[in-house]
Specification:
The protein contains 14 helices and 17 strands. With 402 residues, the protein is an alpha/beta fold. It folds into two domains: 7-56 and 302-401, Aspartate Aminotransferase, domain 1; 70-299, Type I PLP-dependent aspartate aminotransferase-like (Major domain) (Aspartate Aminotransferase, domain 2, 3-Layer(aba) Sandwich). A seven-stranded mixed β-sheet has the order 4-12-11-10-7-5-6, sandwiched between helices. The chain has a four-stranded mixed β-sheet with strand order 1-2-3-15. Strands 13-14-17-16 form a four-stranded antiparallel β-sheet.
């Protein structure tokens, strides 16, 4: 039976957890996509910071095809070469000694939160189980991760939330001092809060968290699911801040579009995760790991990382000019190619309208809540594609302003 799916079919067959745009892309190359009618779109969304090397990057396609003829999946009853190669690469290029591979950022954070509690339990006793996170944080969609995340809308209506979690104010070290004590097992923070509007941490704030954790024998967890893997222009954002966490979670860009994530930690902390304490059926999947290694080797090259700063400057220059022209942005912020443009009055609640106008003009972008436009394009998007995308955004904003 011949059948061409439509946007209306989403409402028929899929749970209504999303409200996707009407466009259905069917082909991508680099930072451009095409729908069934051949309409072209420039991609400033990057799959929400996933497609760090764009669509169908030749090196990733080659890695996928080569591994597809070998082994796809074994489960963790066995191991496989691609998983070991990826884990070794991550260890050699970060602070970590040990890696846990899984399939999503939520899984990586779930593993991290279980790890810090298990470590505190085994090293200090049952009383040390409090996790401090931050309001407006986002750490995933499992029940534990939405509870640690500081946005109640994601946990309300699902019954009692896990206990032992408290929320401080992001970039407010005094609010952490008021909560942290000898019962605290960990402080969990995004170096750049993405979901809540692309808000970078102040360097002194992260340094202060490191000091407080050391004083109270608590672990410091960096959630770099969105801001990691080259997004800021360093391999991981902690490298720019000069603050080394005890645990780091990474996903999105690490697979270049293939579902992949990892939790990184040290030998000392990782020793409490003995056989049977945690697991993932798909963790270390051979196909995902092969693609992930190709993605990280490419992202980690000086050619890619060194190019992020100039692309950031080009984005910022255009966004600030558009903000002045239409009075639409009150602030442009972020690091590297994780950029947020906060909408000024009277546009503050019209993020979705701008997305829809942009699609009509052939541009894909994101929001972070109703009041911030979010830009997470490929790290290798060309300057010409940035220029063309900004022309299309200009036309979209003219529609809204007009």
């Amino acid at each position: 039976m011949s059948w061409t799916p439509s946007r209306a079919d989403f409402d028929t067959y899929m749970l209504p957890t999303y409200a996707p745009q009407n466009v259905i892309p069917v082909r991508g190359e680099g930072s451009r996509l095409w729908d069934r009618e051949g309409r072209e779109f420039i991609d400033f969304a990057g799959g929400i910071a996933v497609n760090a090397l764009g669509h169908c990057h030749p090196r990733l396609v080659e890695a996928l095809k080569a591994q597809a003829d070998k082994v796809w999946h074994l489960s963790n009853v066995y191991t496989n070469e691609p998983a070991l190669r990826l884990a070794r690469w991550l260890v050699e290029h970060t602070f970590a000694d040990k890696v846990f591979l899984c399939s999503s950022g939520g899984e990586a954070n779930e593993a991290a939160f279980k790890l810090v509690r298990r470590y505190a339990h085994d090293m200090h006793g049952e009383h040390k189980q409090k996790i401090i996170s931050f309001r407006q944080a986002f750490h995933g969609r499992t029940f534990f991760t939405v509870s640690v995340g500081g946005q109640p809308k994601y946990s309300q209506g699902f019954g009692p939330v896990p206990g032992g979690i408290e929320h401080a104010e992001f970039n407010d070290l005094d609010s952490v001092r008021a909560l942290i004590d000898d019962q605290t097992c960990a402080v969990v923070v995004e170096p750049i809060q993405g979901e809540s509007g692309v808000r970078p941490a102040d360097p002194e704030f992260l340094r202060g968290l490191r000091e407080l954790c050391d004083q109270h024998q608590a672990l410091l967890v960096f959630d770099e699911v969105q801001c990691g893997a080259g997004r800021t222009g360093s391999l991981y954002a902690y490298m720019e801040y000069g603050v080394v966490p005890d645990v780091l979670t990474t996903a999105k860009a690490i697979g270049g579009g293939f579902p992949l994530a990892a939790m990184l930690t040290t030998d000392e902390i990782g020793k409490v995760f003995v056989v049977g304490t945690h697991g993932s059926t798909y963790g270390g999947n051979a196909l995902a790991s092969a693609v992930g290694l190709a993605a990280m080797e490419t992202i980690g090259s000086s050619e890619v990382l060194d190019g992020v700063a100039s692309r950031h400057a080009l984005f910022r220059r255009h966004l600030e000019a558009l903000g002045e022209r239409y009075g639409v942005f009150s602030q442009v912020r972020g690091k590297g190619l994780l950029i947020g443009a906060e909408l000024a009055e009277p546009y503050a609640e019209r993020g979705r309208d701008i997305l829809e106008a942009s699609i009509e003009e052939g541009l894909m972008l994101l929001v972070a809540g109703p009041g911030v436009l979010r830009f997470t394009p490929s790290l290798v998007i060309t300057p010409a594609e940035i220029e063309e995308g900004m022309v299309r955004l200009d036309r979209a904003l003219a529609r809204i302003a007009g």
